[in-house]
Every structure is written in C-alpha cells, then in structure tokens.
Amino acid sequence: MAAHQLKSLYEDLQRSFNGGPSDLKRCGTLLAQLKMGLIETGLLPPRGEHNLDDLVVARDILEIGAFWSIRTQDVPSFDRYFSQLQNFYTDYSSILPPSKREYPIRGLNLIRLLTQNRIADFHTTLESLPLPADAIADNPYLAHPVNLERWLMEGSYSKVWNAREEAPAEEYKFFVDSLMGTIRNEIASCEEAAYESLPLKDAATLLFFPKQSELLNFAQQRGWQVNPTAGTVTFVKKGEEKIEIPKEKLIAANLAYARELEQIV
C-alpha cells in the first residue's frame, strides 16, 4: 500500500472515530484496511528503521482499534490490539512521544483481567507498569481498576456498582457492567440458598437493579417464580440436591481464590 493511501485511510479513520457519534461500521472497515497497510510497510509489528511520524501514526491506529473494539463489545479484538500495542508501549517508549490514550487502554486491560477472574495476571500486569505505586494511585485510569479489585475482594459490591458512574472513560462502563453480571449471579446463588422467597423490591435492591423490569428478566433467566400480585419472587428448589449446589459452588470458589492467592505470592 502506497504511503499516500495509508495517510488518506488514516485521516478517514480519525474523522469516522472522532465524529459524534462515531461511525463504528466505517471504522471497522478502515481498521482492517489500515492493519494490512501497516503489515505491508513493516509497521505491524515494527521492523527495521522507521521515521518517528510513521510510528506515531501506527500506534494511533492501533489505539483507535482498541477503543473501537470495546465500543463494539468485541473483547477478543481488544486483546489483539492491546497485544500489538505492547511493542510501541515498551520497545519504543524511549523514542516516541507519550500517548494520551496509553493509560486509558492499560486501565481497560486491567479491568478486562478482573472480568475474567484472572487475579494473578491482574497483579502481575499492575506490577509491570512503568510507574511507581503513588503515581498509579494518582492516575484515574489505573486507580479505577485497582479500586474495583479491592472492592471485589472485600465483597463491597455496592461500591463496584457506584463505580460505574465514576468511570474515567465511557468504555470502562462496558467492563463494569460485565463485572456486575458476575456479581449478580453470585448474589442470586446465595439468595436461592438462604431464602424460599423475597419481596420483589428487596430482591431488586440486593441485585442492584434500578428497574423492576430488569429484575423480572433476570428472574426469568434463573427460573424464579414471580408473583406480581403479591409482589414476591420465589426461588425454585429441587429437594436436597438444589440445597447442596450452592455449597459446592462456595467451596469451589474458595479453592479457586486460594489458588489465585498462591500464584500472587
């Protein structure tokens, strides 16, 4: 691909991505073409000698791709873009000017690890950041996932829920929503083990559903019986077998967490 074609596609990508709202379909098409162009010119991964401007453009294309992936809810695509960006964030960090998108993307990667319950990887990645601990605490893009991890370990789920509105970038909300989905299923399993039924209002509060319609959809997915007239939800149990399942889940969860702690230490 000729240099002028690459430049034209890059300018088109910037317009499509930065416009309000972003043209995500157009961005996807342009990103596929631009990545091929970067491969052909030896910029993906970077090989040989390149001028500074070309490296900055290549990094910017991949960063837009990382954000585009989250906006289209394509986590595997985000993983690929983040992996490709590592060359620019590490090998070329001494010659490239700082990128304003680097730490937002690094923060998104940390939250992604949390959503996948990869706690050991989370801590390893955090420790490998080229920043001292006090600088991480002062960086809103990194402090946000650090706080989320602490609140998850504490079981402070209300703080995780409130963190959605405190997200330093819109893309962070996608992963916080994913975390809340996991948390709701954990809470639901405990409710099923501890209660035969609950008032709808109480169930919605415990599960952090601001709208009753959201609770009703969730109840249907879990196979709960809802009585709108009485305003209650009943947790269907299948004899002793149903009672034992939550215990097994709790034991498995505790063992998994213990293994994660061993890896961290």
Key words describing this protein structure:
265 residues; mainly alpha; Serine Threonine Protein Phosphatase 5, Tetratricopeptide repeat; 3-stranded antiparallel sheet; 13 helices; 71% helix; elongated
Detail the topology: elements first, then pairings:
Layout: H1 3-18, H2 24-40, H3 52-71, H4 75-91, H5 102-115, H6 119-127, H7 133-138, H8 140-154, H9 157-163, H10 172-194, E1 197-199, H11 200-206, H12 212-222, E2 225-227, E3 232-234, H13 239-264
Antiparallel strand pairs: 1-3, 2-3
Helix pairs in contact: 1-2, 1-3, 2-3, 3-4, 4-5, 5-6, 5-8, 5-10, 6-13, 8-9, 9-10, 10-13
Q: Mind explaining what this structure looks like?
A:
Strands 1-3-2 form a three-stranded antiparallel beta sheet. The chain folds into three domains: 1-99, Serine Threonine Protein Phosphatase 5, Tetratricopeptide repeat (Alpha Horseshoe), CATH 1.25.40.990; 100-195, Serine Threonine Protein Phosphatase 5, Tetratricopeptide repeat, CATH 1.25.40; 196-264, no CATH class. Helix 8 runs antiparallel to helix 9 (157-163). It is built from 13 helices and three strands; from the N terminus they run H-H-H-H-H-H-H-H-H-H-E-H-H-E-E-H. The model is unreliable at 238-245 (pLDDT under 50). Strand 2 (225-227) and strand 3 (232-234) form a beta hairpin. With 265 residues, it is mostly helical. The chain is elongated and about 70 Å long. Belongs to the proteasome subunit S14 family.
